[in-house]
Specification:
This is acyl-CoA oxidase. It catalyses: a 2,3-saturated acyl-CoA + O2 = a (2E)-enoyl-CoA + H2O2. InterPro entries: ACOX_C_alpha1, Acyl-CoA_oxidase, Acyl-CoA_oxidase_C, AcylCo_DH-like_C. Belongs to the acyl-CoA oxidase family. The chain is mainly alpha-helical. It contains 16 helices and two strands. A two-stranded antiparallel ribbon has the order 1-2. Helix 4 runs antiparallel to helix 5 and helix 4 packs across helix 14.
């Protein structure tokens, strides 16, 4: 298989070089064609067609929807963008977690061994939530690649969801700076993904616009919403307990209710506040639009996590996944100021959430190595500090 791949690579290198050159030339110069006739059998006519007598035909009558359908194939590259981000994150976490399980620093008491980095609560707080977020985003990315069927009806769903999903170096200290440990390289390589396939703020505005269109259309038809996972808007408003506890916060139904309440309220605010702004709504209301997009993405990721967890048999793995799901929810609630800004969380409940993060860190600490090992990253992709940071820093005198 390796020889086959190498032969295939040699054959295609020239084509790849020509393709890169063509893309470069298109970027530098505007490509224009004049009096060019394309045979009908060679038309890219999945959305529209031209009849033999020269008439332009399309089953999509609305110009905006037709344009969206034409642009939909570009969404395909946005999907692997999210996956690439996950892969880079997994490698960085695998290196960092392994390093923190071998690197010791300072003793708590005299004549005792120095403490592992990951046994410090502050270090757990920095790394373990990232593992939970990586699992959550991985489940959502896999859903987008595998479970969403590419059909004309699902084109909008794929576009909106891919836009919404488009997320260690400091935790390794000086070791993270060394080139051989890969962490800095991963960060620099990923920087381009922040704007590749669209600025994240613009993408979130696209998401909120799509949600707005669906809500207004449903109101106009006076029918329930049945797309983009917005079916929860057809149900009664979720009720959040006035006093949250550790046990209530860890129930999947209460977590879903909190995320759905936030999305529902932000959508209602958005619909109300943009009604008088006309075509300039996203210029004036861009902050609220981004809040709406983020709420949609977070609810989608949580629902995907719950769906994955539901097919796992009762037992140890399911229990660990439940802890990871709860960690993801707590981190989202703690990091997004909209939960406090719009009153979804009281000050007292926000304090409970903050304490819950620390509790979950302690619960997940024994599983940290297993969780990053399950990423299945080959050893060759990991830096030396992922195995034995002491040996990696011994200078040979020979």
């Amino acid at each position: 298989m390796g020889d086959f791949l190498r032969r295939d690579l040699k054959v295609n290198c020239g084509d790849l070089l020509l393709l890169k050159l063509l893309v470069f030339l298109i970027i530098l110069y505007r490509l224009s064609l004049d009096n060019l006739r394309i045979p009908r059998e060679n038309l890219l006519n999945s959305v529209a067609d031209v009849s033999p007598d020269g008439q332009y035909l399309s089953a999509i009558k609305d110009p905006d929807q037709r344009f969206g359908a034409f642009m939909a194939p570009l969404t395909t590259s946005r999907i692997p963008t999210a996956v690439v981000a996950m892969n880079a994150t997994k490698i960085g976490l695998a290196i960092t977690i392994r390093y923190s399980l071998t690197r010791r620093a300072f003793s708590i008491r005299p004549n005792e061994p120095e403490v592992l980095l990951l046994d410090y609560p502050s270090h757990q707080r920095r790394l373990i939530p990232l593992i939970a977020k990586t699992y959550a985003m991985s489940f959502a990315s896999n859903y987008l690649m595998i479970y969403v069927k590419r059909t004309p009806e699902s084109i909008k769903t794929v576009h909106v969801v891919s836009s919404a999903l488009k997320g260690c170096r400091e935790a390794c200290g000086g070791q993270g700076i060394k080139t051989e440990n890969h962490v800095g390289h991963l960060k620099s390589e990923y920087d381009v993904q922040l704007t590749f396939e669209g600025d994240k703020n613009v993408l979130m505005q696209q998401v909120s616009k799509a949600l707005l269109v669906e809500i207004l259309a449903a109101k106009k038809r006076n029918k329930p919403i049945k797309v983009l996972g917005l079916e929860h808007l057809n149900k009664p408003t979720p009720v959040i307990l006035s006093h949250l506890t550790s046990s209530t916060l860890r129930t999947s139904q209460q977590q879903i209710d909190i995320f759905c309440l936030r999305e529902r309220d932000l959508l209602q605010r958005f619909v109300t506040e943009v009604s008088g702004e006309g075509k300039h709504i996203f210029t004036v209301m861009y902050q609220l639009a981004e809040d709406v997009g983020r709420a949609f993405a977070d609810r989608l990721v949580l629902q995907t996590f719950v769906d994955v967890e539901a097919i796992v048999p009762v037992g140890f793995l399911k229990d660990v996944l439940g802890l990871m799901r709860s960690m993801y929810v707590m981190i989202v609630m703690e990091e997004d100021s909209s939960f406090m800004r719009y009153g979804y969380l009281s000050i007292d409940n926000a304090a409970v959430v903050r304490k819950e993060v620390l509790k979950l860190c302690r619960k997940l600490r024994p599983h940290a190595l297993a969780l990053v090992s399950s990423f299945g990253i080959p050893d060759a992709f990991l830096g030396p500090i992922a195995f034995n940071w002491i040996d990696a820093n011994v200078w040979s005198l020979v």
